[in-house]
Amino acid sequence: MVLTVRDVTVRFKGVTALEDVGLDLQRGRVHGVIGPNGAGKSTFVDVVSGRRRGGKASIVFDGENVAGRSVTWRRRHGIARSFQRTSVFPDLTVRAHFELVARTLRDESVDELIDALGLGPLLDRKCGQVSYGDQRRVDIGMALVGGPAVLLADEPGAGLSRSQSLELARFIRQLARERDMAVLYIEHDVDAVFEVCDDITVLNLGRVLMSGSPAEVRQDNGVRDAYLGREG
Amino acid sequence: MAIQLLNALAYGSLLLILALGLAMIFGLGGVFNFGHGALYMFSAYTAYSLSSAVSFWLALVTVPAVLALVGYLVDRGAFRFLRSRDPIELAIITYGGALVVENIVVMVWGTQPRALDAPAPFNGSVSVLGDPYPSYRLFVIVFSLAVAIGIASWLRYSKMGLHVRAASRDLRMTAVAGVDTDRLNAVVAAVSFGLAGVAGVLVAPYATVSIDMGARILVIALIVTTVGGLGSIGGAAIAAIALGLIQVTGDVNLPGWSALTPYVVMIVVLIVHPRGIAGRIET
Amino acid sequence: MTLTSEDSMERRIKADVGSGNRRPGGPRLRPMWVVKVGLVAIGFLVPLVVTGPYQRHLVVNAAILGIFGLGVAFLIRRLGMVSLGHALYFGGAAYAFGAFSTHGGLDIVPALLLALGGVVAVALAVGSLLVRSRGIAFTMLTLAFGQFVFTLAGLTQTRSVTGGDDGLPVRMNGTLLGLTVRDFSNPTTMWTICWAVVTVVLLALGLIGRSRFGKLLEAIRENEERVRFNGSNTYLPVLVAYVVSALVAGIAGVLFALYNSFLSLDVLAWTTSGNALIVSFIGGCWTATGPLWGALIYTVGNAMLVSGGRNEWQLYVGVAVIVVMVFAKAGVVGSLQAQWVRRRERRQPPVDLVRTS
C-alpha cells in the first residue's frame, strides 16, 4: 500500500462535503473514484494532494502521515496531481513546461517521457496554441516528471470527446503498469472508469457508498440507485 | 482625557465615513478607488466656497447629493463597460481620475490652504467635564456616526442592502439569481461618492483645507479598511476609532512618532493575516 | 473576487499584443542583435543631437525616471504585481547615499554601495512580508509601506538625518571613475553614465527574463498554484524578483542623488511611485523598453506643457493614464509593436488565444 487515506472529513460552513472518506492506493493499479456531481470527488483530491489542508484526515504515504505537508513537499516526495481543467502556462513553450518541473525535481529522463506522450513535435509551440487534448497531455506530463509514486488524476478527460477521453484513460492505465505507479482516477465518464480501473470507490453526498472491483460495483443495488441508474 | 477621547472620536468617525465608501466599492468589484481622496478634497473645497457664499448647511446637503449623482453617472457611463477588466487596471484608471480631479481643484481654487469657521449654531464651545470643547466637533461625531449607522442599517435591513451584501460575496452568483448587478454597482458607486462628499464637507470647518489632504488621508482610510475591513463595517468602525485614539493620544505623549502608528498597525495585521484585505461587506 | 495570478492582466494584454513581443528563434536573431548594439552605441551620441543644456537636462531626467520605471515594470511584466511603493527604494537609496556622504563623510563609492546594499536588505525585509499577497492587496500594502517611510523621513525626530522639509543638500566626497561632483551635475557627462546604466539594466533584466528563473516567474504569474503542484516553492522566486525590482529603483535613486546633489522628501512620496507606474503604463510595461519611452514622453511633455506658469500638467497626465488604460493597455510602445507584429504575421494562421481555464 503506497498511500492509505482515512477519515477525510471536510466541512464548509456547516455543510459537510466529505465525511470519513478513505481508500487505499497500490502501485501499478488504477483506483477510480466516481459519484454524481457534488459527491465530493474534487474536494477529496484537493485533500490528498494538499491543496486543502486542516480538518480531519490521515494520509499515510510510505509509512508517514503527510496530512500536514504542503503541496510542494508532497509533489517533491512523489504525490503528483493533474487538474480537471487544463492548467498549463499559455505563454510558455511545451518544452519550458517540462524543463521547469524537470529542474525542480532533478529528473534527467524527461525526453523519454515527452516521447511517450507524443509531444515531441510540439516542443517549441506555445502551450496556449496547441490543441486542448495536447494541453491535457502536457498537464498530465508535468505531473509525471520525476516518476511520482502516486498520480492523482482529477477528471483528465474533462472537455474531451468520449473517444479521446477513453484513449486518455487507457494511456493512464498503461502508465500505471509501466511505471509501477499508483493512480487515483477521478472521472465523470463511468464507462472509462469501468474499463480501466482495478478498484473503484463510489462517493455519494460526501460519503463512501461502496468500494470494490468494477464487477462488484456494477452489481451493487445501492450504487445503481444512487448513480448508475440515472445514467441509464 | 475626555477631551482626547472626543478628539479621537471626531477624527475616527471621519475616517470611518471615508473607509466605508472605499470598502463598499472594493467589496463589490475588488477595485480600490484612488480617486476617493480627491473627491473628499474636492468636497472640502466646494464646502468652503458654498459656506462662504451661501451656507454650510446647504453644502452639507447638496455636495454629497451631487457627488452621489456623479458617482452613479460615472459608473453607468464608464465603469460599466470596464467591468471585465482586472481590478488593478481599474484602480490605475481611478488613479488617473484622482490626478484630474486634483488638478481641477488647483485650477479653481489655487494651491493656497483654506480655513473655514464652524457654522452656527455649532460655532461655540460646550463644557465637557469642566473643559471647553468646540461644539462643532461634537456635531461631527454625532453626524458621522449617524451616517455610518444609516449605511449599516441600509445594508442590513433593506432589500438593496441584502443584494449588496450578496454581491460582495459572489457577484456572479448574485447576477445569476436575477439581481440587476449593473444597477447595484451604480448605486454602490453613488453611495461611496456621496460618503466621500459627506466626509469632505464635514472636515472643512474642522481642519485646514489643502490640496494634499486627500492623498494623505486616503492611505490612512485604506489602512482602516484593511485592518477593520477583514470582515465588517463594525470592524472598520472599531479600527477607525482605535486608530483615531492611538493617533490623538500619541500626538500628546509621543509627538511625531504617533504619525507612524497606522502603518505599524497595518504591518502587524499583515504579519498576522498575510493575505491582507478580505474586503467583504457584512454587518 | 479572487485576486490570484490567474487574473493577471498581462494575459489579457498579451491577447491584445498577440504573440508579439517574442522573437522568433533561430538565426534570424542575429540581425536583431546588430540593431540593438547599434542602438546602444547611438544612445551615447544623443548629446550630439540634443544640444541645448536644458534639453540635455530633460533627457537625463527621463533616463533616471525611465530606469526607475524599468524596475517597477519588471514586477508587472514578470509577475503581474503592481507596486505603488517603490519610492521607498528610489528615494530611500537617494537619501541613504546622501546621508552616508553628507553625514557619514564617506566617499562616493562606498556610500553608493552601502546605499544599494541597504536597498537590498530593506527589500528583503519588506518583501518577505509583502510577497505573500497578490493583486490589489499587494498594491495597497506597498503603498502603505512606502507611506510609512515617507512619514518617518518627515518627522522632526529624523530631521537631523533627512533635513526634513528643508531637504538635504548632498555633499559628495572623492570620485567615481575619476568623476567628481561637478561632473555629475553636468547633464552631458550624466547622460553617458545614465545611458550606460540603462544598457546594463536592460541587459540584466532581459537575461533574467529569458532565464529559467524568468520562465518560472512567468509560470507563477500565470498559474501560481500549478507551479506549487510542480514541486516548486513560489515564495522565494517572487521575493527575489521583488528585490531585483527594488534594486533597479534604488540604482535610479542613486543616479538622481548624484545628478541633483539635493534631495527633498518628494522623492519618497507615493506620487513618486505613482510617476514610475505612470511612465511604465504609458510606455508599456510589457515591452522591454516601454518605461524608457514612457519616461521620455512624460518628461518632455511636462517641459512643453508646464511652461508659462500654466498648471494643468496633472490634468494631462491623468487623462493620458485613463486613455491608455482604457484603450491601449499595452502602452504606446506595446501597441505600436503589436501593430507591427500584426502586419508582419498577417500571412500566418490566426492564433486562438481564448483559453479555457
Written overview of the protein:
The complex is a heterotrimer of chains A (232), B (283) and C (357). Chain A has a domain at 1-78 and 184-232: Rossmann fold (3-Layer(aba) Sandwich), CATH 3.40.50. Chain A is 39% helix and 26% strand. Chain A has helices at residues 41-49, 71-76, 94-105, 110-117, 132-144, 162-179, 190-196, 214-219, 221-231; strands spanning 3-12, 15-25, 30-34, 56-61, 64-65, 79-82, 150-154, 182-186, 199-204, 207-212. The radius of gyration of chain A is 17 Å and the shape is globular. Chain B has one domain (2-272): ABC transporter involved in vitamin B12 uptake, BtuC, CATH 1.10.3470. A two-stranded antiparallel ribbon of chain B has the order 1-2. Residues 276-283 of chain B have low confidence and may be disordered. With 283 residues, chain B is mainly alpha-helical. With 357 residues, chain C is mostly helical. Chain C has helices at residues 9-17, 29-44, 46-49, 53-79, 87-102, 108-130, 135-154, 159-162, 181-184, 187-210, 212-229, 235-260, 270-283, 290-305, 313-327, 331-344; strands at 168-169, 262-263. Classes of the chains: A alpha/beta (232), B mainly alpha (283), C mainly alpha (357).
